[in-house]
Amino acid sequence: MMFRPNPKPLVLGIAILLGVVGCGGGGGTNAAPETPASLTTNVSTTVIDGVLKNAIVCMDYNLNGVCDTGEVQGRTDAAGNVTLAVPNDKVGKYPLVAMVGTDAVDADHGPVTVPFIMTSPASQSSVLSPLTTLVQQTIAATGVSVADAEKQLQSTTGITASLFQDFTKAPIPTDGSVNPGAVARMVVVTTQSQLSNLTNTVGTMAIDGTVITQAALNQAISQRLLQILPALVAVLTDPATAALSPAAQEVAVVNALSSSLLTTTTVATVVAINNQTSSPTNTTATTTTTAVANSTPTAAFSLANLNFFDVNNWFVRTLGASAAQNTPDANNNVRFVDRRSRSNVSAVANWNNFGNPSDQSNLHWNGSAWAACDLNQENISSQRDAAGNNKYNYCDNYETGTTNRAVFDVSGSTLRQVYDQIRAAGYTNLTLANTAALATVTFPTDSKLFYQTSTPITKAYAHSVGTNNEIKQYSAAIQAGGDGRVQAAGIGCNSVEFSISPTIQTSSLEMLVAAFKGTPCVFNGPASFVSGTTTFTSPDTNNESWGSFTLGVGTLGTVSGAPTAFYTGNTRVRVAFTGTGTNPVTYYACKERFNTFSTRNCTSIGTGNYSITTLGDARVMTLSNPPALTTAFTSNRIFVERGGKVYYGYQDKLTAFNAARLNSVAANAFLTQLGLSAVNPEVPMALTAASYQGTWNVTGTAATAGGGLNLIVGGNGVNTCQDGGNSATIPCTLTVSNPATGAFTLVSTSGVISLTGTLNFMTGVASGTFTDTSSTPSSGNFIGARR
Fold it and tell me: Cα separation of 401 and 459, whole Å?
């Protein structure tokens, strides 16, 4: 199948970033004409994976990624060093390129067997390595600055050191952080594996009808490497991989990434994507068609995500704009709205931002205040330039960044052909359980397929306002931990207080630091429990409870359900305020008990520090030097003190992401063929009853004394009531009567209790009046909050 591209070729930055060169660099080794010394400046660099001898280094005047005749160049010595006499008018203006051929020798890894290319940004030429290559790749793909590219990659990889350092001369980190040299080596190994496996695609045809060149293959590989970089680092830093020999680590990483690497099939699509450009510059992030200059803006949207199981169970996300929102403002920016809908057994929930309806009430620091993403929040986008690039501001500075888009006309192609091509190219944001309905239907005229890369530059501090996100602690006597084997009954670890959840509100960051010191309660071991008819015994002789004495950073693994062993196999990464130096923290890897999913038997895996910053009416604690295990997490842990409470907070990592999107014409054809409603971006999104899904705890009635009354609005349309203290079911009828306002009524089946009030979608607050014929007083007001 061949898609029709937009006619203008993609303007490439660095055409070749990591790739194949011939032995000794092939025909690109001719020296540049000599320039008088008085008109040149010496530019020195060191080329490393390990130290690389005999690599050809040049200044890439024409930005084609190889060393050509006329470009000043030289070969590295045994220390990996080379000095180029660069004409003064070219100093600092062009990237350096290192062509590492099979006549080069790596001091750490021996003779080079598969040639590859590295590069470095024009302004950072002192070291040329796989890590500087990643920075230059990011710059070429997105147009961001050197500083922003480095920051984005550090966030993605977990490397805390500069990406421009000579890591061969720096000590290997012993504090649990990511080793830059190890990441660099895996970048090279993965690239070499791809080059070896895909060499036969050179000379074949891409889906846009162009011939795949070596340069095109090199660029495709480099882009895919950036896409899978988080997965590469996650595999590398996995304790199972870290325990292997260096050679075995290389094999393990490549094997683990095999399903995400390019294949002979996907190369044809990825190369075509790289060959194409976006629509003209007045085409917005949500424009449906190829625009012409000064055309009248129209309503439009793109299908950003689809997960379709059947007509009753699906998720749809669109980015849309009305005609007015698509009209450029005085700064030449347009607006778009993020709309999300999810059907669970035909119960449809609508909301705008983030993963779940309740997440829209999350607060983030927008630079001047703590704000939430409003209903139908208008996000800002610049118009695209000729190379398909634009800038965006999502949800009032929650995230800012850049995107790059390639455009294909898929008019006349079958829906099945296009979907299969998207999936074969490795794009997973559009997912169907069954594609039979797409087989013979074709896309109408003016259907466009967008392949888009989004690169965040900033991410805000944020936190959930749910009550379950508030940090609570035990009394000081319990928080001190201790040896439960010798403590008296009713004391410390053996107290009644420790047998229930903590209830003391942590009200300040200082209170947090004082309470969570990593001092567990120690009990007799090995521990055991019975599930059904099976007894599960811990493989550990120690039995330490750590959950109340450390704070969660994240969990590796998703095992849940009925017990099959004593531990789930998941790893809980935790932190406590202990150690040496100023504001110390210690990170731990902990086990998870299967029957209670509690934290047990932690081991120290690294150290760092905390710092506190005042932002508006809040104080934010950030943690330095997160351990290598956290590279698999999509966000970094923070803690937010606000309004006399301390919340678990987060800051999403600056990880680039890729998506295949359909314009309005193509998307509505796709959706209607699946039996879903067409989208009209002129109509604002409206809340539904299922938008309020979650647990709302209300207090203030005699019947809701103690733990209160839980109102559970089910995502599947089934609403229930529950005693907030003991979780016992209370038969009731709970109805969200007005989704626009959150107005609801509740009547117990016995007729004794009734509530009338509102659930505030944005603030997560519940309020209203009650009657309770079994209590005194028999009526009054209630308050509540979403958990």
Answer: 9
